[in-house]
Write a structure and sequence with these properties.
The structure holds 2 protein chains of 2 kinds. Chain A contains 20 helices and 22 strands. By secondary structure, chain A is an alpha/beta fold. Chain A folds into 3 domains: about 220 residues, 3-Layer(aba) Sandwich (Pyruvate-ferredoxin Oxidoreductase, domain 3), CATH 3.40.920.10; about 190 residues, Rossmann fold; about 100 residues, 3-Layer(aba) Sandwich (Rossmann fold). In chain A, the strands form 5 sheets. Chain A has a 7-stranded mixed beta sheet with strand order 11-10-12-13-15-14-20, with helices on both faces. A 6-stranded mixed beta sheet of chain A has the order 3-4-2-5-6-7, sandwiched between helices. In chain A, α6 packs parallel to α8 and α9 runs parallel beside α14. Chain B is an alpha/beta fold. Chain B has a domain of about 220 residues: Rossmann fold (3-Layer(aba) Sandwich), CATH 3.40.50.970. Chain B has 11 helices and 14 strands. In chain B, the strands form 3 sheets. An 8-stranded mixed beta sheet of chain B has the order 4-3-5-6-8-7-13-9, sandwiched between helices. In chain B, α1 crosses α6 and α3 crosses α4. The longest helix of chain B has 15 residues. The chains are: A alpha/beta, B alpha/beta. At the A-B interface, α1, β9, α9, β11 and α11 of A face β4, α2, α4, α10 and α11 of B.
């Protein structure tokens, strides 16, 4: 490492500290301003500080939209607390706005009297015009209801680095670390994790490492020494379950889960994929893990990605494909082939706003019906959904385990919010994770390709290279047991039914439905996937108000838990919040004849706790 | 089947399945199946290590009739499936059977990409210049103006030249053979097997129901010697019933010349399988002006895709610890007690 970490600045405190139990902060700026980096580093600092946390990165699809425009605004929100939290937070306690466009796009979320830090110099005529301001909000009194801190971030960054030979453009790009340093002081975050990160990130560019370190510290010391801030804030560590923690995003957790699952199955991992937002990071992560017997294949298209994965599954690998909505459309035919040939395959759909290209970088959960039904004919597959970023790790293990035991495709429905959002993750004890049993049949006696296990209805997995068991599989209908091509009418119905029964039978693997709250009452809020956080937060608030409200969160969307209908019927009303027009609610109504109602938000953003709580209260009144 | 003295003794019969072959009587596919089944025992590898993968179409029924491992997949996707299998199981001998529609229309993208990657898969493209299984629509290799059910006014499409497509995709082995040329087809199949890398063989195949006689001049006893130009590495390009015609390169263009006292074999173009420029020129030769070349257009070596991938995995294993604990513990950690 080329840079010596600075003295921990924390010890030089002299200003008073005000204790808070929770803070929601958002960094917002131009997409070239490094707000994602600032947000991520602030998250790491908060994790090391022992807080529970939840993040919401929100960035445009354009790599570099025109500077200073509303379209180019990128944001990163962090909620950190001394207690358990479930969401990135509804409203902001603090907002850092690096330019007028960032202010305009984000101010609406800042609480009255919230802390507002802006880079004063950026509020020039040109930028104000680009953001659509007629007058300068910093001086026209329109920000009077906030604690406004106009700071010359650009100038102070330049001053810090005036003795270097770095070009002005490079100097300017360091200013996110000034903002980060300042905010780190304001909320008493340790900056060592960021110092370490800078040192490793710029290992090959020591002059940049040095510059960013200095700017970070300058920002931190500015907070301490300038007269602007009378005090700093402190958020004590949260009481999390004992263990070793790290911070993790959903995509990272999914990648690691797949590696561990393949290891537990003692098979190589094969990922066939095509770059697509917001799933590509899984491909990136796995591509760097070849030493774990991980094959990654960046295919010519989405279809080849899943096709290669199915070929690898035929050969005995733990096969995975990763994609998002548009890619799912293209993969449908191959998923169906996997249904027909009954080979194990894991399909990760990191959902984003649609239809078509839609909102590539924004979250949505509107691929549920496609996952359940979006293929020709009767095509049952297993569908699972993780609830939080860290949960993506365990869902990967479960998906692989079901796929190989039942010889079936398994779809994992993550989404952009889980994929890029982060939370503390308690590291699992690898020894305690269950082994995944993979058995390749090698005994030719009495072998038929579609001879089924009497309990699971699973067919044997026989891989090429096994003597005496040469056989052919394919997408044509096949005869029960022998697997020979068959067009016989009764056989077809039997095969359709047996494929359906095989998947339905997986319900035996699902533990009894967990009801958070009373087991009967007025309202049960039923969710799936990434709405877990805001639903849990809202339900807890309602419960704290003495209401008979419960939360049930589905991890298994096909098959559904066998006790679900019974659980739902114990409540007077069923509310299903979804980031779509009402997809799970359709399934629930048709499956159980329960009069469930939807709460739907399709804005490319997760629910706020308050939005769900309001609906619960309405239902309690009605 | 018997294994004696460590050497594998298989016969053609060992590669025949119990399934009834369901191609139309008289289909060229029967002849191709017979040659493939004849060649398989000569590979000297056990049946269980051979995999045939196909897409959709008449040709793609092929795996059902081969007593090896087989995968009859979906339209056009066999190269993708084969790539995933070969990458992870390089010890297997993987063959793809496809057609002009499957391989050049719906699966054209996968075909060119497997060729450029040089995955060690043998691709047999049965070209009958028609859609047979869907009952007679024009294909991407049908001649322009072709009258079919879907082109009653004649096809407006200009056809693909499969050899030129393969060469354009930087394939390392490109050949053409004919369904009824038993010996030539067997030799070409064997050469493809022994080539390390993707081997592409266009097999001209007669569909006697929907496009009968498409290659008649090339297969009729009377005309075939004048219509075929058999390519042999290092040998001059001579053809004709009386071996009295040849191909010369003049002013950058190929020309047919009569051999006589003025023009001798020594003045003819000599075939060189390593010269992609020559291969491309030869790929353009077509009736009626020229004979149709058959044989190996190109054979060069380049590292295979799976060797590179396997090499990276082995290298990574040597250089980095494969400890899952360490992997999970990346980044900043903190402990709650």
């Amino acid at each position: 490492m080329s840079v010596t970490p600075a003295e921990p600045a924390v010890q030089q405190q002299s200003k008073p500290r005000v204790e808070r139990d929770q803070v929601v902060i958002r960094f917002a700026g131009d997409s070239g301003d490094g707000m994602q980096v600032a947000g991520m580093q602030f998250t790491n600092e908060s994790a090391i500080a022992g807080n529970d946390l939840s993040t919401l990165p929100d960035f445009p699809a354009e790599i570099r939209a025109p500077a200073g425009t509303l379209a180019g605004v990128s944001g990163f929100q962090v909620n950190f607390a001394s207690h358990e939290i479930f969401t990135p937070g509804d409203d902001l306690d603090a907002l850092v706005a690096m330019n007028p466009a960032a202010l305009r796009m984000n101010l609406g979320d800042l609480k009255p009297n919230g802390i507002l830090i802006v880079d004063r110099e950026q509020f020039n005529e040109l930028n104000l015009r680009k953001a659509g301001y007629d007058s300068n909000p910093l001086t026209d009194g329109s920000l009077a209801k906030y604690q406004l801190y106009p700071i010359d971030i650009t100038k102070l960054t330049a001053l810090t680095l005036r003795d270097t030979n770095l070009p002005a453009r490079t100097v300017n790009r360091c200013k996110n670390f000034f903002a980060l340093g300042l905010v780190s002081w304001l909320f008493q975050r340790p900056i060592e994790p960021t110092q370490k990160w800078i040192a490793s990130r710029f290992q090959k560019r020591p002059e940049l490492a040095e510059a960013n370190q200095r700017v970070l510290q300058a920002g931190y010391h500015f907070g301490e020494t300038s007269e602007l801030f009378a005090s700093s804030f402190e958020v004590k560590p949260a009481r999390l379950a004992p263990g070793t923690y790290r911070n993790i995003t959903g995509n990272s957790a999914l990648a690691l889960g797949l590696v561990v699952a393949a290891h537990k199955a003692d098979r190589p991992l094969f990922l066939g994929s095509y770059p697509i937002t917001p799933a590509s990071d899984i491909l990136h992560e796995l591509a760097a893990l070849k030493e774990f017997d991980v094959y990654t294949f960046q295919a010519e298209d989405e279809i080849a990605g899943i096709g290669a994965a199915l070929g690898a599954a035929f050969g005995g690998a733990i096969a995975v494909t990763t994609t998002s909505g548009p890619g799912m459309c293209l993969k449908a035919e191959t998923i169906n082939l996997a249904v027909s040939v009954e080979l194990p395959l894991v399909i990760c759909d990191i959902q984003r706003g649609g239809p078509s290209t839609g909102l590539p970088t924004k979250t949505e959960q509107a691929d549920l019906l496609m996952a359940l039904y979006g293929r020709n004919s009767e095509s049952p597959v297993v569908v699972l959904a993780p609830a939080t970023p860290a949960d993506c790790f365990s869902i990967a293990l479960e998906a692989v385990s079901i796929a190989v035991k039942y010889m079936t495709p398994v779809i994992i429905l993550s989404d952009g919010y889980l994929a890029n959002g982060a939370e503390p993750w308690r590291l699992p004890n690898l020894e305690e994770l269950p082994e995944i049993r993979v058995e390749f049949r090698t005994d030719p006696t009495g072998y038929y390709p579609y001879l089924r296990d009497p309990v699971t209805f699973s067919r044997p997995w026989v891989i090429p290279g096994t003597p005496g068991l040469e056989h052919r599989i394919g997408g044509l209908e096949k005869e029960h047991v022998t697997g020979n091509v068959s067009y016989a009418p009764v056989n077809h119905e039997q095969m359709v039914r047996v494929r359906a029964r095989k998947i339905a039978g997986i319900a035996r693997e699902i533990p009894p439905t967990r009801v958070q709250g009373p087991s009967e009452g007025d309202v049960v809020v039923l969710g799936w996937g990434s709405t877990y956080g805001p639903i849990e937060a809202a339900v807890r608030k309602a419960q704290a108000g003495g209401k008979a409200v419960a939360h049930v969160h589905l991890r298994h969307l096909n098959p559904l838990p066998s006790d679900l209908g019974e659980v739902l019927r114990r409540f007077r009303k069923v509310l299903v919040p979804e980031m779509n027009l009402g997809q799970l609610v359709k399934v629930i109504r048709s499956e159980y004849l329960v009069d469930a109602v939807g709460l739907n938000k399709i804005q490319g953003l997760p629910f706020k706790e308050a939005e769900i709580l309001r609906r619960i209260e309405q239902m309690l009144e009605g | 089947m018997s294994v004696a003295g460590g050497a594998l003794k298989l016969s053609r019969k060992d590669f025949v399945t119990d399934q009834d072959v369901r191609w139309c009587p008289g289909c060229g596919d029967y002849a191709i199946l017979a040659q493939v089944q004849k060649v398989m025992p000569e590979l000297g590898i056990p049946r269980e290590n051979i995999v045939f993968i196909s897409g959709i179409g008449c040709s793609s029924r092929f795996p059902y009739y081969m007593n090896t491992y087989g995968f009859h997949s979906i339209h056009g996707r066999a190269p993708a499936i084969a790539s995933g299998l070969k990458m992870t199981r390089p010890e297997l001998s993987v063959w793809v059977v496809t057609g002009d529609g499957d391989g050049l229309s719906i699966g054209g993208n996968h075909l060119i990409h497997i060729l450029r990657r040089n995955v060690d898969v043998k691709i047999l493209l049965f070209n009958n210049r028609i859609y047979g299984l869907t009952k007679g629509q024009y294909s991407p290799t049908s001649e322009q103006g072709k009258i079919t059910k879907s082109t009653p006014y004649g096809s407006a499409d200009y056809p693909f030249n499969p050899i030129a497509v393969a060469l354009g995709a930087q394939a390392t082995f490109v050949a053409r053979s004919i369904d009824v040329e038993a010996k030539h087809l067997q030799e070409t199949l064997l050469r493809a097997y022994h080539h390390k890398g993707t081997a592409f063989i266009e097999i001209l195949q007669n569909c006697n129901i929907f496009n009968d006689g498409a290659f008649a001049p090339l297969t009729d006893k009377e005309t075939k010697n004048d219509a075929q130009l058999v390519l042999e590495h290092g040998k001059p390009l001579v053809f004709g019933k009386d071996r009295n015609k040849g191909i010369q390169l003049r002013d950058g263009k190929l020309q047919v010349v009569e051999l006589d006292s003025e023009v001798t074999q020594e003045q003819l173009l000599v075939h060189d399988e390593t010269d992609i420029g020559l291969a491309f020129l030869l790929s353009q030769l077509a009736a009626p002006e020229f004979p149709t070349p058959v044989g190996v257009f190109r054979a060069v070596t380049r590292p295979t895709y799976e060797d590179i991938v396997q090499g990276q995995i082995q290298e990574a294993k040597k250089r980095r610890p494969t400890d899952l604990e360490t992997l999970l513990r990346q980044g900043d950690l903190w402990t709650v007690s």
